Known about the structure:
Blueprint: E1 5-6, E2 11-12, E3 14-21, H1 31-47, E4 50-57, E5 61-68, H2 74-92, H3 94-99, E6 111-114, H4 119-129
Antiparallel strand pairs: 1-2, 3-5, 3-6, 4-5
Amino acid sequence: MSELIHKKHNVSVLLYHLVCPTKYRKAVITPDIDEKLKEICEQISLRYEIEFLEIGTDSEHVHFLVQSVLMYSPTKIVRTIKSITAKEIFRQMPEVKKQLWGGEFWSDGYYISTVGAHSSEEAMKQYIRNQGDGNDSTQPSLF
């Protein structure tokens, strides 16, 4: 659950829904990669002020619900997550790099939006939690 982040001169609740597709939209995210990705994200949380509230994977993309601080721009958050996860997945699971012939894990593009701290946070968590289960009825209308 998101919490107020108290800093010296501000208090914030900044939530972002981030969707990162794999390079070429190749279906490389297996249960093992899903587990490894979540472990890597735990390590990112320890090092950076980026809290992963929910992570949901499908075979060719990942949804993240993250909370961060004002000093991290959305671009910095995305760049941090994508670069560290890609580097670590390739290091720890070198067979994945062979499947992605260009040597990159993530596509250059991504989707990011802000999430309201109250009513839509739970709906977004449920949506992200249900990634990959094939049940489209739980997906909120994002647009």
